C-alpha cells in the first residue's frame, strides 16, 4: 500500500510527464489582518516545491509586503519594476530555499493603479512568459476587501481564505467570502483555520463560516485544514527561516504538511489539460486592465 508521501510523489511524476500549459494560480487571502497568510503562503509554496512542483511565490500585499523578510533574503527588486524599467519578470525574481522562486512586493502594488497603458502591456507580456515555466503561482495578498485582491481572486484557480478562531477573524473571513461570491462565478474557496488550540476549536470556527456561507450565500466552502497555535511559528519568523525548514517536526509544520496533502488529494488524479495558453494571457489581461 502506498503511504501519502508515495502517493504525492506519484502524482507529481504523472504531472511532470504532462505538457503543462499554464500555471495554477493559488491565492491566499484573509478578511482580518495578521492571521498567518504570509507564513502559510511561504510554507505552502515550499511544500509544493518540496514534492517536485515548479513554484513561483508572489508577494502581492499592498503596503506590508514581507515574504522576503520571512526568508531572510533581501530582495532588491519588486514586482512593478518590470513595468517601470527594462527588467524582465525573470530579472525581478529571486531564488529562495529549495530553489523556490519568488517575487517580492515592495511597496510596488500600491502603484498599480497609476500605470500607463504601455506599462500595463509590458506587465501582461512579462506575466505571459510564466507559462510553461511554473506549475503553481502562489499569491500572498493583503488582508481585507481591496479592489486589487478581488481582481486577483477573479483570475485565481483556487482561493485559500485564512482565519483564526477569533470571532472578529471569522466575521471578517465571512465578509470577504460574501464579496468574493458576489463578484466571482463559482469560486473554489477553501478555508484554513490557523492558530487553533484544539481540533475541536478549529472545527467549531470552520463550521461557523461553512454553515453561514451555505445558508446565506448558497456556497459550499471546503475546509482545507487546521494549524495549531505553535510558538515555533514566531521562532521561525524571528530566525527569518520558513517553518518547514526551521522546525519540520513542529506541530504547526506538520499541520501545514497535512494541508498540502489535503490540497493535493483534491487535485485531479488523472492528467488533465489545463487551460490553453491563450486563456492564461487573457487572465493576465483581465488582471491588469483598468
Ligand atoms: N500557527 C501559528 N502559531 C503561532 N503564531 C502564529 C501562527 N501563525 C501566525 N502566527 C503569528 O502571527 C504573525 C503574523 O503572521 P503573518 O505575517 O503570516 O500574518 P498575515 O496574515 O500575513 O499578516 P498581514 O495581514 O499583516 O499580512 C506571525 O509573525 C506569528 O507571530
Ligand atoms: Mg502578510
TrEMBL record:
Transmembrane segments: none annotated. The keyword ATP-binding applies. InterPro entries: FlhG, MinD_FleN, P-loop_NTPase, ParA/MinD_ATPase, YlxH/NBP35. The keyword ATP-binding applies. Keywords: ATP-binding, Nucleotide-binding. SUPFAM superfamilies: P-loop containing nucleoside triphosphate hydrolases. This is MinD/ParA family protein.
Amino acid at each position: 500500500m502506498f503511504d501519502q508521501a508515495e502517493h504525492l510523489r506519484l502524482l507529481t511524476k504523472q504531472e511532470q510527464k504532462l505538457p503543462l500549459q499554464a500555471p495554477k494560480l493559488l491565492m491566499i487571502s484573509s478578511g482580518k489582518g495578521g492571521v498567518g497568510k504570509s507564513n502559510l503562503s511561504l510554507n505552502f509554496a515550499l511544500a509544493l516545491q518540496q514534492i517536485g512542483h515548479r513554484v513561483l511565490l508572489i508577494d502581492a500585499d499592498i503596503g506590508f509586503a514581507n515574504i522576503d523578510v520571512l526568508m531572510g533574503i533581501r530582495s532588491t527588486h519588486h514586482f512593478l519594476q518590470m513595468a517601470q524599467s527594462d527588467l524582465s519578470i525573470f530579472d525581478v525574481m529571486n531564488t529562495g530555499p529549495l530553489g523556490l522562486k519568488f517575487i517580492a512586493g515592495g511597496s510596488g502594488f500600491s502603484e498599480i493603479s497609476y500605470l500607463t497603458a504601455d506599462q500595463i502591456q509590458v506587465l501582461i507580456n512579462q506575466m505571459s512568459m510564466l507559462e510553461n515555466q511554473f506549475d503553481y503561482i502562489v499569491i500572498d495578498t493583503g488582508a481585507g476587501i481591496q479592489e486589487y485582491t478581488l481582481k486577483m481572486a477573479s483570475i485565481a484557480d483556487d482561493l485559500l481564505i485564512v482565519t483564526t478562531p477569533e470571532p472578529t477573524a471569522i466575521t471578517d473571513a465571512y465578509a470577504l467570502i460574501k464579496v468574493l461570491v458576489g463578484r466571482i462565478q463559482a469560486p473554489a474557496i477553501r478555508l484554513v483555520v490557523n492558530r487553533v488550540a484544539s481540533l475541536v476549536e478549529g472545527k467549531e470556527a470552520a463550521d461557523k463560516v461553512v454553515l453561514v456561507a451555505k445558508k446565506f450565500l448558497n456556497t459550499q466552502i471546503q475546509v482545507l485544514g487546521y494549524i495549531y497555535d505553535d510558538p515555533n511559528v514566531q521562532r521561525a519568523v524571528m530566525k527569518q527561516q520558513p517553518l518547514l525548514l526551521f522546525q519540520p517536526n513542529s506541530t504547526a509544520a506538520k499541520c501545514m504538511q497535512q494541508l498540502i496533502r489535503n490540497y493535493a488529494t483534491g487535485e485531479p488524479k488523472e492528467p488533465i489539460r489545463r487551460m490553453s495558453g491563450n486563456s492564461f494571457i487573457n487572465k493576465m489581461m483581465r488582471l491588469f486592465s483598468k
